[in-house]
Amino acid sequence: MNQTLVTEFIILGFLETPRLRGLLFLGFLGLYLAALSGNLLIMVAISTSPALHTPMYFFLVNLAAVDILCTSTILPKLLGSMVGERTISYGGCMAQLFFFTWSMGAELLLFSAMAYDRYVAICQPLHYGARMGSRACALLTGAVWAISLTNSSVNTGLMLHLPLCKSGIVEHFFCEIPPLLRLSCAPTRLNEAMAFTADVFLAIGNFSVIMLSYGCVIASILRMRSAAGKRKAFSTCSSHLLVVTLYYSTVIYTYIRPASSYSLHKDKVVSIIYTSVAPTLNPLIYTLRNKDVKVAFRRLLSFH
Predict the structure, then answer these.
(1) DSSP letter at 11?
(2) Whether pLDDT at 99 is above 60
(3) How many Å apart are CA 22 and CA 83, to the nearest integer?
(4) Nearest in space to 183 (alpha carbons), one of 196, 175, 194
């Protein structure tokens, strides 16, 4: 413990060559602008359209807010490091860890809330109004934000009490739990145990709930007599399940193993999916294919 504690970190990033730096910068800038504009447009369109004031779109507004929080926590600093200093202060690193972990937990829980909403709508339509009223939706989203905030506070608090005194080089493009644990000069068993527990609950637990909900939904769809109705319902389910599977599998891969098995190149590629790609795709998959949302967009963009 005679080593000097780290007060500033160097974000290693992608170690890109000068030739690739411009392409990577433009790529991440495009992802950030697409995620920001797409999710903001969804929030405004749904908020200003009374026809979209339903539980499904209420959850979508929250998902858009989570995606904006996630990308704005990661990508501006990444873009800045590509054209300037790669350093980040200790406080800035911990703030990035806190807000990213908060947004990630909220996204995982929102997927479950959305799956539950579809389950009630398709499998128990007569009870939908009672079970998914405004009070129930408010309680669900309140629980989503509170549980994810608690998880983020616990894991960030444990990281704050962990002495980081090694090289100060973060082998990643942002401050995440696995690469930070490798900088510790003290045992990290408690931190790893808490991250593992959170992943089991937030990722594996919620993924199991979603799979169970959609198992019931698919069974109900198969009993439908209308072929057109089946195609429409399956299209909605398959899109949601694709994003959910992609997001959950990458998060589980990152957090459910020891920090010692962290791999610089593999983990950075995996992290791009849930920090940049998924928040950009969510608006396209969940709303832009929806006829009601397209009408809301046309009204929003018109000058009448």
Answers:
(1) E
(2) yes
(3) 9
(4) 175
pLDDT tens per residue, range 25-39: 999 999 999 999 999
Token pair for 299: 């009204």
Kind and range of the H or E run holding 185: none
The Cβ-side half-sphere exposure at 57, using a 13 Å CA radius, reads 20
pLDDT of residue 250: 80
With a pLDDT cut of 90, the percent of the chain lying above it is 34
- How distant, in Å, are the alpha carbons of 77, 82, 86, 178, 264 from that of 22? 16, 9, 16, 28, 21
Cα dihedral 250, 194, 174, 283 in deg (nearest 10): 50
Nearest to 154 by CA among 191, 180, 114: 191
* Range in 29-33, 94-98, 203-207, 232-236 with the lowest mean pLDDT: 232-236
Phi, then psi, of 87 in degrees rounded to 5 = -85, 155
Burial class (CB in 10 A: 0-12, 13-18, 19+), 277: middle
Element (H, E) at 10: strand 8-11
**Residue found by looking up tokens 């009408």 in the block:** 295
- Three-state secondary structure along 31-71? HHHHHHHHHHHHHHHHHCCHHHCCHHHHHHHHHHHHHHHHH
Q: How many CB atoms lie within 10 A of CB 242?
A: 12
Cα distance between residue 276 and residue 257, in whole Å: 22
* pLDDT computed for residue 84 by the predictor: 83
